[in-house]
Design a protein that fits this description.
- By secondary structure, the protein is an alpha+beta fold.
- It has a single domain (7-77, 89-105), classed as Gyrase A, domain 2 (2-Layer Sandwich).
- The chain is built from three helices and five strands.
- It has helices spanning 32-44, 82-86, 95-105; strands at residues 4-7, 10-14, 22-28, 49-55, 64-71.
- The chain is globular, with a radius of gyration of 14 Å.
Length: 106
């Protein structure tokens, strides 16, 4: 099963080791509609809080970024901090199952 796709020079894939609940990495220049569909469908799949990090290209580098689901706001461990980045990640969803669910909606 695939955990990534490419659309119009925009590659996106689910991280096998996201820094928090769920994570999507992306590379390239997305069409606004594609990026919005990813966010919209992640919200429909249960994401409540998220961070979106996006770096616009400079010189010869392409755009890149990631989407991180912070978890349920009612849980104490929903705060996203340095432990998730530098310590042990908290992964609550199988990235292969998540990829199948999201890609079936795109």
């Amino acid at each position: 099963m695939k955990i990534g796709q490419e659309r119009e020079n925009f590659k996106f894939w689910f991280s096998l080791t996201p820094p928090k609940e769920k994570g999507i990495n992306f590379y390239g220049e997305p069409k606004a509609k594609t990026l919005w569909l990813i966010i919209k469908n992640m919200l429909e799949l249960g994401t409540e809080n998220f961070n979106l990090f996006y770096v616009v290209k400079s010189l010869n580098e392409n755009n890149f970024g990631f989407f991180v689901d912070r978890g349920l706001s009612t849980k104490l461990n929903s705060d996203f901090g340095s432990l998730e980045i530098f310590g042990l990640p908290v992964i609550s969803t199988n990235p292969f199952v998540l990829a199948q669910e999201l890609f079936s909606k795109l």
